[in-house]
Amino acid sequence: MTARAADRARYDRATAQLDAPVAIVDLDAFDANADDLVRRAGGKPIRVASKSVRCRALLERVLAREGFAGIMSFTLAESLWLARSGFDDVLLAYPSADRAGYAELAADAKLAAAVTVMIDDPAQLDLIDAARAGGSEVVRVCLELDTALTLLGGRVRIGARRSPLHSPAQVAEMARAVARRPGFEVVGIMAYEGHVAGVGDAVAGRPLRSRAVRLMQAAARRELAERRAAVVRAVREVVPDLEFVNGGGTGSVQHTAAEDAVTEIAAGSGLYVPRLFDNYTSFRGRPAALFALPVVRRPGVGVVTVLGGGYPASGAPGADRLPVPYLPEGLRYDPQEGAGEVQTPLLGPVVDDLLIGDKVWFRHAKAGELCERFDTLHLVEGDAVTATVPTYRGEGHTFL
Fold it and tell me: What are the b/e assignments for 203-220, b being 16+ CB within 10 Å?
């Protein structure tokens, strides 16, 4: 029996009394992935990206482990909810236009101490001030650095279009703009190198593309390390007691941690290890988050139909954004139908061994987005479900 076949047997036994669709997290794999992230971080604390987890119980579990500290959130409403729930160090990774949320933040000393918001434009300061509604608490601010690699005098850009702040001078001027505004305090810098941390460099069947990605990433790491260090020096001239410099992501942990200027690493997807993280040379994780769909039809030889399955991930549309049929091994989509909202046909010789009611296990393309489809996660240890916990959705929250 292969390792994957053994996992299928375990998951089927653990969920035998549960009807599919059902989602699980294999805690042995989850904890092993957490240990590997800590190893790769080389002693620097890891701030957990909540977008990639979306379950309070699992955020609490990983933050109880040595090597993890703080949360990187994705909306202001989520940040405030987490702070009210007892998480005392929440960094909002994206600018917000949530006026009601800013009014709440500025009016509550506990929330203002726990939540740091993201800024890359003076207009965002204006929005926050206009939303205060009399609240006088100091708002903690983090400045985001654009990490994109630019070539040929800026005519070529590689990297996500996020912050407009690219040079040390631009970030330092933003720090001065904040310092001139009463009611704000710069406490950190964040830089997410998505073109390094979020792009696999070992794509199966595409050796030339993989080599090109590795060359690009090596150049991007060198350029960013130098520029990030210069940015930190420039900002410290304005804010000598800067609290943190956050960088990286699951795919770049060890590289980002090696930079002296960086004080903490961001990571989250590496806990669940979705399918998009199968294509890296720098690390190998264990799939920890899976979902099962039930076989409901057998239209003919070599094909079965499962209920549901159309759970595409965000990003540029493509086959790599679809969940992958994982267990049993040897399944594939019908190219004429793909993954359907209500039903999904699956092909391959192995399907003739599947019976009505059997579970087919899938891996989502991205991490936390799976939790937008399920109210609960069943936590598996060995071949038993040892706990069932709500996702954000199960607690009544769909923040975005």
Answer: eeeeeeebeebeebbeeb
